[in-house]
């Protein structure tokens, strides 16, 4: 198993006190690939990064009372920026401090600040919000063949083959996977410092460029240039903001395996059925069991 999860009822971010800003609850699911290292690191460290970055914008948040007419809009903007910055910092620390270079992880989840819900996604795991017994909100998958992702990867100097980044990774956003971000930052002996082998080989132009850069560096004593003009795979989250209501029943977090065999609506309907059947806290275990069984049977 390469998947991990975290659930924190209150981050206790410095400066985020008062009814409108408390608690700051964080829940997330990490869908690891290539080993559990990245998912484990995120489970153990992501919450601290989110807490720290929220603390850094606390003064700006406290000043929002001066602008009551736009306070909600500004709060959302500030918190989305802080969350995005926390993810970028976490990805940098993952390489520099943890030395996790061979694995990667998708991530999805939600940050609740008072009565505001910030749903985030990196990769193809999903978070769903159920309101009044129906699907209200769902994250969007980050697939390499999506037009916007395809264009970004191409502009960075990469290619999408068979729906995968460089014919290898089936998601266009993830933590880790540094050989598809800046392979020259990996240790020289790392097997993925140069492009991973592809069945049938890479396009000749890409192979020749890599060989030329290495040859010039060896002959001229200069530092090697990055293979990509910018990372092909990024940890940038897509964040959706919603105001919580009395009709909100639950959020459902799951890896892509569930959605390979069921739709968002079907997943919410199954969880709602468990809620009506079991009631109380038992419905969570029952809903998870029901959805897991559906995956296995399908």
TrEMBL record:
Q: Name one Pfam family in it.
A: PP2C
Is Transmembrane among the key words of this record? yes
Coiled-coil spans are none
Entry keywords, A to Z = Membrane, Transmembrane, Transmembrane helix
* Recorded GO MF terms: protein serine/threonine phosphatase activity
Q: Which residues form the PPM-type phosphatase domain?
A: 1-298
Which segments cross the bilayer?
A: 66-88, 100-119
Entry-linked SUPFAM superfamilies: PP2C-like
- Which InterPro entries would you find in this protein's record? PP2C, PPM-type-like_dom_sf, PPM-type_phosphatase-like_dom
Q: Which domain of life is it from?
A: Eukaryota
List, alphabetically, the PANTHER family matched. [PYRUVATE DEHYDROGENASE [ACETYL-TRANSFERRING]]-PHOSPHATASE 2, MITOCHONDRIAL, PROTEIN PHOSPHATASE 2C
Its protein name is: Phosphatase 2C-like domain-containing protein
Source organism per UniProt: Tribonema minus
